[in-house]
Request: fold
Amino acid sequence: MVQKAKILLVDDRPENLLALEAILSALDQTLVRASSGEEALKALLTDDFAVILLDVQMPGMDGFETAAHIKRRERTRDIPIIFLTAINHGPHHTFRGYAAGAVDYISKPFDPWVLRAKVSVFVELYMKNCQLREQAALLRLQLEGSDGGQGGAAAKETAGLLAELSARLAAVEEQAEALSKQLDDESADAAAVATAAHLERKLTGLRRALDALEPGTGGGGSGLPA
Reply:
């Protein structure tokens, strides 16, 4: 059974963290607090997160610096970051957020429903990714068992599961391709484009992992996306 996803909330003001927890509690996921950039980086050393909500204006290490550290680490570089800021300095400020690796940039005060909806998209993507990785790992074990001489029945069952998994992933890939085509114009929202690009990277990693499980491809290695 897939465990709850963890969502990292980073803000130096306790009242803001409390407000975020109240908004996101309906998602029924694990909410982790961090009151500084340094504390956030420490939490990221040991736990995996579906998404990070990161305040821009913080004393010491601000949101941009924190995001730069997150994106430099191989373990955390693919975690989506949503910047939250009470100050809007215009397009250049927003561009700096996207340049730092954000998938979205939201100005306070924000609509609670919109924020919850945005976060839920990344939580769902994270959960699907975990499920596909677990299924791929199970298939690998079954393939190794079949190679050990457990019989043709096990091999046929494994092949069927592998085909089903491939078909499910193909359906998601088709939807992602359609989304990218819709966003392929200058008027597209930058956050939506960044989100679609992140999704495509994840799907590419999953497809590589699945292809590695195909018989005759030497799938003994990991091949799984991080």
